[in-house]
Amino acid sequence: MRNPNYYRQILYALERLYKGHPKYNMGKHLSTALDGSDLWGISDKEFLFAIQKYEIELNMDVDHEEDIEDIIKDGMNLERLFLDEEED
């Protein structure tokens, strides 16, 4: 049975991050994924696990830009909403 090639898997994971989130630079990906880890002694297996965990979390994070814009618009129209309620 062959041992897993963690080094190659790390490279594939970094490639997926690059393609999936091109606005983020490599430094941001690594800094966030490895959040304070001592890089000198980290094994390839631990490194891969950290990158994969970060990738999953990043992919689960949903962009709420449109929701925020809707909330701001609704907040700017509160006066109209209260007037509509009073008329009912």
Biggest sheet architecture: none
How far apart are the termini?
A: 74 Å
Instruction: Specify Rg, calculated over alpha carbons.
Output: 22 Å
Low-confidence stretches: none
Tell the overall outline. rod-shaped
Average predicted confidence as pLDDT: 85
SS strand fraction: under 5%
Level of helix content? over 70%
Number of helices: 5
Quaternary structure annotation: single chain
Order of helices and strands: HHHHH
In total, the number of strands is: 0
The computed structural class is mainly alpha
In a few lines, what is going on in this structure?
With 88 residues, the chain is mainly alpha-helical.
How is this structure best described in words?
72% of the residues lie in helices and 0% in strands. The chain has a domain at 6-63. The chain has five helices and no strands. It is an all-alpha fold and 88 residues long. The N and C termini lie far apart (74 Å). Helix 1 packs parallel to helix 3 and helix 2 packs across helix 3.
Structural descriptors:
mainly alpha, rod-shaped, 88 residues
Detail the topology: elements first, then pairings.
Layout: H1 6-20, H2 26-34, H3 44-60, H4 65-76, H5 78-87
